[in-house]
Amino acid sequence: MQLNDKIYIAGHRGMVGGAISRRLQTLGYTNLVTRSSAELDLRSQAAVNEFFATEKPEYVFLAAAKVGGIHANNTYRAEFLYDNLIMEANIIHAAWQNGVKKLMFLGSSCIYPKLAPQPLREDSLLTGPLEPTNEPYAIAKIAGIKLCEAYRDQYGANFISVMPTNLYGIGDNYHPENSHVLPALIRRFHEAKESGASNVTVWGSGTPKREFLFADDLAAACVYLMLHYDEKELVNIGTGEDLTIRELAETVKEVVGFTGELVFDSSKPDGTPRKLMDVSKLHKLGWKHSVELKEGLEQAYADFLQKNQMVTL
Ligand code: GDP
């Protein structure tokens, strides 16, 4: 991938696509192509075909997806399955038809079976039942992986798949119900601090364990693998370190500066008990994360404050 090659980042308005765009710009890539969802509806096969035929990108980062936390995944099950299936099918097929040199498909750690051995190895895929709360999203992402593999097998396309762990960072979604745990807690602790509330509610039991990767680290890994990895097998992207939701809540509380108590709401689902990535393959390929959780949380909270102020002004 040369600095003037034409690179399409699908989903550049999202946290991940935005981070990939920033990373490419920092490294000196000058020919980036992007479209907002208003400009290009990725669910329309005709629109996607026309876009690829006109723009003829040489490289594609497929970071467009309908995403959300445990509640959103469990509630909008049809949208999470249909939108994600059709977007990835349209893009992968058009990329092949238009001679894209290389495509990277971004999946998720939820593709692995609910009770797969921890840490999650790449070869655990399709070895057992999925976590029910995010099964539609996981099925769509598994289909995307299989599309990349099939286009490689049948047509020789250089399409690769990477599986990020739980992500957070600049430009995250802070919706109170539909977001993931980390941005949800940033908002909730911040609002509790502002209003002088005595406690903050955390969903579930607090015992599930999760791993968190800063989105800019993910973007650096994606560009690194785009440059250095050409194989069919997926690659996990994470830190290889996890903590309980209770420990996460304590850390967010400290970063935000809230001094009250935590209350656990057991009427909300815990989801999968643990989701830690085995990152030995990624490390062997020569990449390791650089932003630790506390530092990433400080940056994410600063970003939240900046955007929050803009909304209230
Ligand atoms: P998951 O990794 O797919 O389960 O996605 P989430 O980030 O939505 O949830 C991770 C864990 O955090 C689950 O055990 C949730 O029950 C827990 N959690 C605690 N408080 C919250 C919250 O306010 N929002 C969300 N989304 N999850 C929460």
Helix content estimate: 40-55%
Shape: globular
How large is the share of residues in beta strands? 5-15%
Write out the distinct hetero groups bound to the structure.
Answer: guanosine-5'-diphosphate
Order of the strands making up the biggest sheet: 2-1-3-4-5-10
Which blocks of ≥5 consecutive residues have pLDDT under 50?
Answer: none
Structural class: alpha/beta
Largest beta-sheet characterization: 6 strands, parallel
Number of helices: 10
Distance between the termini: 42 Å
Q: Radius of gyration in whole Å, from Cα? A: 19 Å
Mean pLDDT: 96
How many E strands?
A: 13
Q: Would you list the SSEs in sequence order as H and E?
A: EHEHEHHEHEEHEEEHEEHEEHH
Catalytic activity: GDP-beta-L-fucose + NADP(+) = GDP-4-dehydro-alpha-D-rhamnose + NADPH + H(+)
Family: Belongs to the NAD(P)-dependent epimerase/dehydratase family. Fucose synthase subfamily.
Pathway: Nucleotide-sugar biosynthesis; GDP-L-fucose biosynthesis via de novo pathway; GDP-L-fucose from GDP-alpha-D-mannose: step 2/2
Enzyme class: oxidoreductase
Give me some keywords for this one.
313 residues; EC 1.1.1.271; six-stranded parallel sheet; NADP; alpha/beta; binds guanosine-5'-diphosphate; three-stranded mixed sheet; 10 helices; Epimerase_deHydtase; oxidoreductase; 15% strand
Structural commentary:
With 313 residues, the chain is of the alpha/beta class. The structure holds guanosine-5'-diphosphate (GDP). Guanosine-5'-diphosphate binds next to helix 3, helix 6 and strand 7. Catalyzes the two-step NADP-dependent conversion of GDP-4-dehydro-6-deoxy-D-mannose to GDP-fucose, involving an epimerase and a reductase reaction.
